Amino acid sequence: MAGTLKIWVTRPLFDDVIDRLREHAQVRVSAQDKAPDAQALKQGLAEVDGALLGLSDRVDADTLAGNTRLKAVANVGVGYNNLDIDALTAAGVMATNTPDVLTETTADHAWALLMAAARRVGEAERYVRAGHWQGLRFDQFLGHDIHGRTLGILGMGRIGRAVARRAAGFGMRVIYHNRSQLDASVERECAAHYVSREALLAQSDHLVLLLPYTPEAHHIIDATALAAMKPGAVLVNIGRGGLVDDVALAAALRDGPLAAAGLDVFEGEPNVCAELLACENAVLTPHIGSATEATRRAMANLAVDNLLAALDLGQQAGDPPSLINRELKRKR
Ligand code: DGY
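A: This is the predicted complex of the input protein with (2R)-2,3-dihydroxypropanoic acid.
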């Protein structure tokens, strides 16, 4: 029987997963798969004890002002740049995310983008569909090799390491840059070598961005960084929009030095800048890095586990499995 606590699920999710919340609380699920505006989010959060949030639901001090009820928010996603963690902690609201369960799936998609961009799959596919193909031409859609080349990774967290491990099958040299160098044993396991950011830009034939978005990382790949990249390089952004200056990227795809790009995330998504849309050599996907049935289910289930634990409901009572603001861990 549903209890007296109230939960808001701000996006429609797998109904059977939401049923796990309905067993313990009164649940409202938004009908539309669309971010509520700031006012609706503020008001909705003031009326509930917990919420399951989408990655574009921005919660900050303004959203929380005057809210005395909310105890927990569970992001359905690993990245949480939509949440002001300091403001949530100050308000005593637990915040959680969904790490680990999407690592391998997202690494797969990084490779899908890398390969599609390097081998011009998008352009070639559009050409065939448009009925332009007149027969095999020896010099048509010449792309860039992946095997034997240098793979660079900026941001060597869980997903970065999973991307690196896959490179062994392509006989690649793997270099990375990260806030801090990994332990030697982890470097060995991924066969990856730590280099400076400058060396990463200069030496990568294929560069994958996998760092979290923070104000310091805003436009970490700007016109200057793009100009420092290897001529003919391929850039993949599967981290976050805002890491790359998308207008500068479009210029680098048009005028060099880049050969191609594979992008799953965009500044100001779901809007994509017109300059990028005009680039035939950019493969664009709509933030689907973790989008397989199994992984999206696992993410939804982990978010539910987190929320149940944070609200002390059912068998999940205890600290949420992936609590971000660990200062709020309960002392037991
Ligand atoms: C995340 O979880 O942060 C991903 O961007 C979702 O695909």
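The chain has two domains: 6-101+293-328, 103-284. The longest strand covers residues 258-263.
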